[in-house]
Every structure is written in C-alpha cells, then in structure tokens.
Design a protein that fits this description.
The complex is a heterodimer of chains A (164) and B (789). Chain A is α+β, with helices and mostly antiparallel strands. Chain A contains 5 helices and 5 strands, in the order E-E-H-E-E-E-H-H-H-H. The model of chain A has no long low-confidence stretch (mean pLDDT 94). The chains are: A alpha+beta (164), B alpha+beta (789).
C-alpha cells in the first residue's frame, strides 16, 4: 500500500506491506533507529513515539494507520543544536543507564510536560507507568522529568558538572 | 607557583555516554544494517519433550525470499549440532533427536527480510512424537520419570550432580547441641533477567579475508571470541566480536545461544551478513533464566539468640541442558557463602542438580553466581529465628553480625571476607527508617486490624570474579587487561576488556584515570566492547568490572605515572627518585615551583628531549590484573509494606537501602545501580515468576504474563552509604552492580511475612502476588512454580 507519513516534519512516501508495524517502518524503512523495539505485547513502551501529537506504542500501530498523519520521534527532540529540557534532565539526573528505554521515556515525558507543565511525582509515575525500565528503578526518571519541568528553557551546557 | 592542573577524579559526574542515548543515537545490535544483510528466524518446539520424527523444509525453501534453511541435520554434517556449555555439558544448537523443552530451537531460516523469515518458519513441517514431561524438579529423580538426556551415553536418570560444602560432622554436632533448631522449605522460583533489548547478533563472514565479524549482545566479547574459535575451528585472530551498545544484560547476555551459532553458520553458508534478533517470547522461553532453587534450610541457635550454624539441602533445577553461564569451579556457584553476614561455628550445604524439560540456565539475573539464593535463605532463617524467639529481627541481627575486628574473616565454608563494619551500616539504616517509630506505627495499625510489615535484610556479597583458584571459564582465567595510551598533548585513550550494558564504564573508568593521572575525565576516551580494539578479559557480569577491570585501570595508570616520572626527571634534570607526585604533576621534592604537568611530560616523552638510557619514551602502558581475592560489599535494607487482607495486594510504602561498596568512584552511578537492583527485588518478591504446567508449557512467555515492576510498584528509594574500603583493591573499591538485586528480595518477603504475623504465617514463597498472599492468609498457599491449582 502507498502511504505518506510526515515524520519529524518531513514527508515520506513509501509502498509498504499492510502488516508492517510502524516501529519497523521507522527503523527499517526510514533508518530512524532511535525508536526501539522490546516486546510483542505493548507492555514495554520502548517504541513510544507521537502519532498526531499523542504518544503511542509504535509496535501496536500499523504503518498504514499512520498514512496522512504526523509522527514525532526522539530524533526530533533536539532542535537547532539545542537539547530539549527532558533530554538535559535525563542526563543531569542520571535518568538512564543502558539507554534502551530512554527514547520512549523521553517522548512520553515531553508530552506530559506539554500537557501538564508542573506535574507531581505521582503524575510523572502515572505518565510513564506503561513503559518499563530495567535499570533505573524509575526514581531517577521521575527526578529527570521534574528537572525538566523546573528548567523549561535552560541553556545547554556541554561541560560535565561535578555535583559531589 | 606552577598552576595545579584541574583535578577531575572521583565524584558524581554526568555520564559521557548519555550524549548519544538521549538523542536516540546509540548503536544497538538491531540498529546495525550491512549491505546485503539477510535475516534469520528460528522455529521453536511447541512440545516440552518429544522425539523428532521428521523435519520437512521443502515449502520453506521454496519461499521466494528464503536463501537457506538450516536444520539440526545440516549442522550435524558440519559437526555443529551440539555445542559445549559453560558447565561441562553439551547443548543442542538445533535439535536432531529430541526436543527437550518448550521453545527449543529446531530450525533456522534465512531470508531477505525479517517478515519473510518469520513467514517461512511457518512453512516448516515437523512431525513429533510427544513424550512424558518432567516439569517439576521434585519429580525428576522419580523412578518413572522419563530420561531427558538419553543423548548422553549410559544415562539412566535425570541426575546431574551432587555437591557439598562445609563440614557436615561439625554442623551435625552444633545442631545436636543447640537449644533451638528451626527448619523451613523455601523456593527461589525460576525468574528471567528480561533486559529490554533481547539477545541478537549480526554475523558477517568475509570469505575473501577469511575474517568473521560478529556484532552481538554479549557481556563477554573476548570469551565469546575464544569459544567461537574452539567450537567452530575458525582461527581466533580471524574472529572479531563487537559488543556495541547493549540494552541491559543482567546476566542474560553472558552465554552463547543457538541463534548466534546459526547466524554464523548462516553467514558462512550464504556468504552474506546475517542478522538474528529474538522476539520477546524467544528471550523469555529459551535464554538464560535464573534461580529455580528448592531449598530446605535449618538454623541452630542458643535460646538467647546466638546463631550457631546453618545447613541446607537444595534441589537445583538446571533445565534440559546443564548450561549455567558461570565461571566458578563449583556447580552451585558461590552458594556456599550462605552463612551470610553472621559469625557461625559451622555450616553445611548439599546441592543436587537435576535435568527437567525446561530451558537451560540457572545463573543469571544479577545473582553473583547464586549469592542471591544464599542471602535469601539465611535472611529468611534469621527472621524465622527472631519470630520463634520473639525478639526483634534487628536486634537479633545486631547480636550476630560479624564485628569489624574479625576481618579478614574466614567463614565456616572457607570464604575470606575482606572488610566490613556491619553494625554501623545496619544502625544507619535503622536510623534512616525511624525503626522504633515504624514498629510503633505497626502496633497501632495492627490494633486497628490493618496489615503493615517491616522487613530487614542484611547481605554480604562476594564479587569480582576472580581468583584463579576459585574460577575460570572453560579453562580461561579471569584476569582483565587494560591499556592506557597518553597522546603527545596529554589526552588519553583507555582500552579495557570489560564491556558496559548500562553501567557507565565510559565515565567511571575515565574517572579512575583522571584520579590517578590528574587529568580531566573528559580528556580520557574509554574504548571497550571490541575484541580487535581491546585487551583480553572475561567481561562484565558478577559485579566484576570495578573490582577487576577498575583495578587494572588503576594499575596501568600508575604504570604510566611511573613512566612519566622518568621523563620528568630528564626534564627537570633531577633524579627521578627525588620527585614527588601531586595531582597531575611531578615536582622535585620540597620545591613545588619546579614541577612539570603530565601534559608537559607527555609532549616531552614524544618530543626531542634527550632521554636517559633505558627510558623508551612515550608514556603508554599495559597491564593484566589478577584479583587476589573477591571483594565483599554488603548492605542493610529495610522494606515497609502494607498488605490488603481482602485482596492480598502488597504495596511497598518505603524502602531504605544502605550500601557499603567501599570507595565510590562515581556515587551517582553507584546509586543508580542500587535503584535498579531494588526494583528487581520488588519484582522477584512480588511479581516475577516463570511457572510451568504439567505438560511443560511455559506460563510466563510474554510481558503479559511475566510481570515486571513499573513506576507504580516502586517507591521512592531512600539510599544511604557507609564506606569501608577493600584492603586489597588498589582503589579500595568493591563491586556494587548486583548488591541490591541480591539483598532486596529477602527484605520484601520478610516485610510481607511480618505483615501477616497476625495470621500465624511463618513463611510464604515468592512471588507474593495478591493471589498467593490471599491464599496464604487463608492457610492454603500454592506452589508458585507450577500452574495455580
């Protein structure tokens, strides 16, 4: 089937099998490997992207369902060389270890802060509750999102901070 | 006065590796795409035990996008149908005679794309003759049990090994003379590490150069290279194993799996690169599981609460092939460190390993080679003793913990603990928890009919594998190499043999060089995970990176520093013996104004400075570190739970964790490691289990059934630290990666059992799911490892 999907602001026209999953379309057809795949059952959420500005698990969306729609992935968070506050927050607060769940967590976090700029810890936990992380025990992810909420327009600093 | 270079050593520092991950620019195995790359898929057995009558691959081979179909028969012709395991057994790569667990690998299809490969495995027709199944280890040695491993000559039962440690006679004597002896059967159920990235490989055999390049999800790239050479006969210098970014390991990615071997064969057969990535069910059903220990433990004590000894008889379910991916010389790993943190007169353990119709494995999931089971056993026994004697479990522990002056301490089963100040750590945890107030709150709640529990666990770990007398991998010793190059401008490249799956090596190891060489950590590039680019070593698991490779890094950096001293001597026209070192510079003793920085020395070492005889120039150095002993980190954990008596639901309200892992190189990273392990503990104690039914059907084959903790089950962790350096590690550091996974399950279970005290509950097996807790309250708990009845 011929589809046109706007991914990160760019139109992509492709002829795809009807059964192709959106996550595979993004990764294999478009080469956007920032979005990961982790389970077959919509439980882990490492494949979370935005579909028409709402987070979805892209392993549970067919590529053809994205026809005529917009998709935003982790690759679009940094703009004009400026990291999104959630990206900075995850780095500042050690919100990632292996980095595999990170893109999905970042996309949900950005959506949360767009819809609720000052979430409580509980609201952050609820927002990411459909996504698994095996490394962090979630604590530092919550802190990272809080950091981002508190630093909506902080300038990027490339030097590492020593915060002993 | 010469300016002192900026000192960037130990301390919390943002991770260098984050820059790529937060941009979605990590390179995981599945992100690798090579020209002409083909895709593999595995056909798995639906039966747990069945004879294979025929395998018809005709239709699959006729699929227009299929390039090859590999069966056990094809591999047998190449001598590769079976591969050695890390425990002295053999494992089928692709089944030839029988399938022995549900999900066992039967055929491998290679196609142009992933979807076609999956389509084609559906076209393979396998005729099976189903056989009786052993799905409960406790029936494996029954006379009527079918013999699973009839491939092994002379095999007439499912027995793998009997093994014991400690002094049986002395332990019997101690138990006979004890005022109190308590016994409890307990199950540490089968669980799976379930990293979010499944296992996978891209194998690329270049027939022109004869070089095999493998990108794989491996925690031990060097060990894999050597094993591939030994198994396939390919020359080792023509094998390059690259472990790129790895999406979590936790022990799941130590072993070599059939899919890896099939992909390598597939690349040789097709002449193209072949990628194979597991799906989630394949990961959960076939790759290294953990635990599955059926333990009968006993503790002996005096009436006033002095613990005298422990003993345990264990039935170990090893699955269909004895494939525990562990390097110790003991079939039960380090299980015999089960005297834990207490001073005891005697201990004895017996372990019997059996085959069952389940996937192979047993050692994985941050267990420090069975110390998880050992800690759980002794910490449950201590709590049972406290309940029996009606003393507070904290008080009982304080009475029996090893004292600082007893270190180095040799336990009743022979392990030499390096250092510890246990009571200080437990007291800090009790203070942080507000223990007395918690007990008061609990009493008030009980009076109101509410169920609140407080659980303590005090664990001692043994990590940093390890000394050659205790461990090896198929004859390979567990030393780690390190190589440090210092470029003319004073920037450094460190090459290490261990490999990160999220532990932050690129930061921590740069910080070690920074600390020892006095240059900023940002000036140190850490290279790892590529056997062509790094020195030999055994990899990252068992919390061994900092204890072994971290030590290697410190030693090699000190070598560089000594080489720099000789050059500095020439620069300063002084006797090198008269020089002193201070954070990045050598200076003539007593004259701080005369020093030269390491950057100046590096340039001179590469420049035209006339060097004294015998000084080579340059500053590069290499080393190999053989750990003299394991390191013994420890910690005190306190868990507070509420239990809903109506539903059996457990809610973790608080979790206090005080860890002592010696000197902390990057405390932020250490705390992150602990956080993750604590979540694991909650998962294992409350949710995670791989149960089987009578036919050997796997009941936890997806994340719908194998439940992992989310942000909603995890509380906000409360962490504390004490620092007792390891006396034998060059930095005083100990490993920490698995501490929380090892230590925390017992705290959660102790808390739940404590909450259920009003019902007279002494013990309940993990996982303490609502159904299990509710049934326990009703007095009819069930076997959590079998289908619920």
């Amino acid at each position: 089937m011929k589809i046109t999907v706007t991914v990160n602001g760019q139109d992509h026209e492709r002829d795809v099998e009807p059964r192709l999953l959106l996550v595979h379309f993004l990764r294999d057809d478009l080469g956007l490997t920032g979005t990961h795949w982790g389970c077959d059952t919509s439980n882990c959420g490492v494949c979370a992207v935005w579909l028409d500005d709402v987070p979805v698990k892209s392993c549970t969306v067919l590529a053809v369902m994205a026809d005529g729609k917009t998709v935003r992935t982790v690759e679009d968070l940094e703009r004009d060389g400026e990291l999104d506050p959630v990206q900075k927050g995850f780095s500042e607060c050690h919100g990632l270890q292996c980095g595999f769940c990170t893109p999905g967590m970042l996309m949900t976090s950005r959506w949360l802060l767009d819809t609720n700029p000052d979430p409580s810890d509980e609201e952050i936990r609820v927002a990411i509750s459909g996504q698994l992380c095996r490394c962090t025990g979630y604590e530092n992810i919550v802190r990272s999102v809080r950091w981002a909420a508190e630093h909506p327009a902080v300038q990027n600093t490339s030097e590492p901070d020593v915060t002993v | 006065m010469t300016e002192t270079p900026q000192h960037h050593g130990f301390g919390s520092m943002r991770r260098k590796e984050d820059a790529r991950f937060i941009r979605g620019r990590g390179t995981f195995v599945d992100d690798i795409k090579l020209p002409g790359m083909l895709h593999g898929a595995i056909l798995h057995s639906p039966h747990a035990h069945a004879r294979i009558l025929s395998v018809d691959t005709g239709a699959a081979e006729a699929h227009p996008k299929v390039k090859a179909v590999i069966t056990g028969e094809v591999l047998a012709a190449m001598g590769l149908a079976w591969m050695p395991t890390l425990s002295g057994d053999v494992q089928a790569v692709l089944a030839t005679d029988k399938v022995r667990f549900q999900g066992q690998e039967v055929a491998f299809v290679i196609a142009e794309d992933h979807y076609s490969a999956r389509d084609a495995i559906e076209l393979i027709n396998v005729e099976y003759d189903a056989l009786p199944v052993v799905s409960d280890a406790r029936t494996a040695m029954d006379e009527e049990a079918p013999v699973i491993r009839d491939d092994l000559e002379g095999r007439t039962d499912n027995h793998i090994f009997d093994w014991e440690a400690g002094d049986r006679a002395r332990t019997d004597e101690v138990f006979a003379g004890a005022d109190v002896v308590l016994s409890q059967d307990m199950l540490y159920p089968r669980v799976h590490p379930a990293p979010l990235e499944t296992c996978g490989i891209v194998a690329d055999m270049d027939k022109v150069t004869g070089k095999l390049t493998v990108w794989a999800t491996t925690q031990a790239p060097h060990a894999h290279r050597t094993l591939y050479a030994l198994v396939t006969g390919l020359p080792e210098h023509k094998i390059r194993v690259i472990s790129p970014d790895i999406g979590g390991g936790f022990g799941n990615k130590v072993g070599i799996y059939p899919g890896y071997v099939c992909s390598i064969v597939g690349s040789i057969v097709t002449g193209k690169p072949v990628k194979w990535m597991e799906d989630r069910s394949e990961n959960l059903m076939t790759t290294s599981f953990a635990r599955d220990y059926h333990m009968s433990g006993s503790i002996a004590a005096t009436r006033d609460g002095k613990v005298l000894g422990v003993r345990v008889t264990t039935l170990a379910d090893h699955g269909a092939f004895n494939g525990t991916a562990q390097p110790t010389k003991f079939p039960a790993g380090f299980f015999h460190v089960f005297t834990g943190s207490y001073d005891m007169q005697a201990a004895h353990c017996e372990v019997t390993g059996v085959y069952t119709n389940k996937a192979p494995g047993g050692v994985a999931y941050a267990c420090s080679f069975r110390i998880t089971e050992a800690v759980y056993l002794v910490e449950r026994l201590i709590d049972l003793l406290a309940a029996e004697l009606d003393v507070d479990p904290a008080e009982l522990r304080l009475k029996n913990l090893l004292q600082p002056e007893q270190f180095p301490y040799t336990c009743a089963t022979g392990w030499e603990y390096d250092s510890g100040d246990y009571a200080t750590t437990l007291r800090l945890a009790l203070d942080m928890a507000g223990y007395d107030a918690l007990r008061k709150e609990q009493a008030e709640k009980r009076a109101r009919g509410e169920l609140m529990g407080i659980g303590i666990s005090f664990f001692t770990e043994a990590v940093g594998a390890g000394p050659r007398k205790h461990m090896d991998i198929m004859g390979l010793g567990m030393a780690d190499g390190a190589e440090l190059r210092v470029h003319p401008t004073g920037k450094a490249v460190l090459r290490i043999s261990v490999q990160s799956q999220g532990q932050g090596h690129e930061t921590t190891f740069a910080q070690i060089v920074a600390e020892e060489l006095g240059i900023p950590a940002d000036d140190v590039e850490v290279v790892h995970g590529d056997t062509d680019q790094t020195p030999f070593g055994l990899g990252t698991y068992g919390s061994r990176s900092t204890p072994v490779s971290g030590a290697a890094t410190a030693v090699v950096t000190r070598k560089v520093r000594e080489r720099a001293r000789l050059v500095a001597g020439a620069m300063l026209e002084a006797d090198p013996g008269d020089l002193e070192w201070d954070a990045g510079r050598w200076f003539v003793r007593g004259d701080r104004t005369s020093g030269v920085t390491i950057q100046q020395i590096a340039m001179a070492a590469h420049g035209d400075l006339e060097l004294p005889e015998g000084v080579e120039g340059h500053l590069d150095a290499t080393t190999v570190y053989n750990p003299p002993n394991l390191t013994f980190p420890y910690g005190a954990y306190i868990c507070v739970v509420d239990v809903d008596a109506g539903t059996g639901k457990v809610s973790v309200q608080r979790f206090i964790a005080v860890d002592d892992c010696g000197v902390r190189i990057n405390p932020m990273i250490v705390e992150g490691q602990v956080h993750g392990g604590l979540a694991d503990g909650i998962g294992m104690a409350l949710m995670q289990v791989m149960a089987f039914d009578e036919q050997g059907n796997h009941l936890g084959a997806s994340f719908m059934d194998y439940l992992l903790p989310t942000s909603m089950e995890c509380p906000s962790w409360e962490l504390g630290a004490t620092v007792t350096p390891s006396p034998h590690h060059p930095l005083g550091a100990k490993g920490v990666g698995e501490s929380a996974t090892v230590g925390s399950p017992a705290a959660v279970v102790n808390a739940v059992v404590d909450a259920l005290k009003p019902y007279g509950v002494r013990h309940a097996d993990m996982p303490l799911t609502p159904a299990n807790v509710w049934r326990t309250i009703q007095g009819s708990p069930f076997r959590t490892d079998l289908a619920i009845t």
